[in-house]
Amino acid sequence: MIRLYQFAPALGLPNASPFCMKVETCLRMMALPYQTVSTMPMKAPKGKLPYIDDDGTTVADSSMITEYLREKYGDRLDGRLSAAERATALAFRRMMEENLYWAVLYSRWFEQAGWQRTREAFFGSLPAPARAIVPFVARRGIWKELYGHGMGRHTPEEIARIGSADITALADFLGDKPYFLGAEPTSLDATAYAFIANVLHAPGDSTLKRHAAGYANLGAYCARMAGRYYPPN
């Protein structure tokens, strides 16, 4: 049995981490049995979530997990793809994971409406005085990461433009297709759904959410993926 170690569900999403949600969606798409275990990053092999334990084999990092699953259980999602389609999928994954992610992170932790939701969802259950101290420390750490990456060196308006351009690219490429690479979902959809849903369906207001809501195809896509892989109990 595969054990998926990740954050507890939050913000009304399967997971508020796009990377955790990506892996869980991939497991569902591949129809692999698994259990989720809620934990914190300091307990993870690389200090980040998610990671899996597959009958004693531990794999960390969402991309390495999906690669491991493909190698061990077969290429159930991407076997039909051409080399050009695989290259396209890789480029879009990189865009979301290495660029859009940082704009979403800024939106949640430093736009006022986003921070209020994030603080309550992640730290609201802490006892006093930890409830006052831990969010401050965590937020300072996030800012260091944003600044080190480079996204945090831009103005709020510039960050919004950068993230919005990525969202527009996703909407334009999806077009009227059911899934990103055609009639059937691929591993790219595990990543895309995780990121788009984390923008569109997290509660509250944000610049990126308003921009994404302007594309009806993104909302319809999320509904399609949720209905197929996260049906109501």
Can you tell me the residue ranges where pLDDT is under 50 for at least 5 consecutive residues? none
What fraction of the residues are assigned to beta strands by DSSP?
Answer: 5-15%
The biggest sheet, with number of strands, parallel, antiparallel or mixed sense and barrel status, is: 4 strands, mixed
Strand order of the largest sheet: 2-1-3-4
Helix and strand sequence: EHEEEHHHHHHHH
Estimated helix fraction: 55-70%
Tally of helical runs? 9
Radius of gyration: 17 Å
Oligomerization status of the protein chains: single chain
Mean pLDDT: 96
Amino- and carboxy-terminal Cα gap: 22 Å
Given helix and strand content, the structural type is alpha+beta
How would you describe the shape? globular
In total, the number of strands is 4
Please sum up the structure shown.
The protein is of the alpha+beta class and 233 residues long. The protein is 59% helix and 8% strand.
What does this structure look like?
The protein has 233 residues and is an alpha+beta fold. 59% of the residues lie in helices and 8% in strands. The chain is built from nine helices and four strands. The chain has a four-stranded mixed beta sheet, covered by helices on one side. A hairpin with a 2-residue loop joins strand 3 and strand 4. The radius of gyration is 17 Å and the shape is globular. The two termini are 22 Å apart. The relative contact order is 0.14. The model has no long low-confidence stretch (mean pLDDT 96).
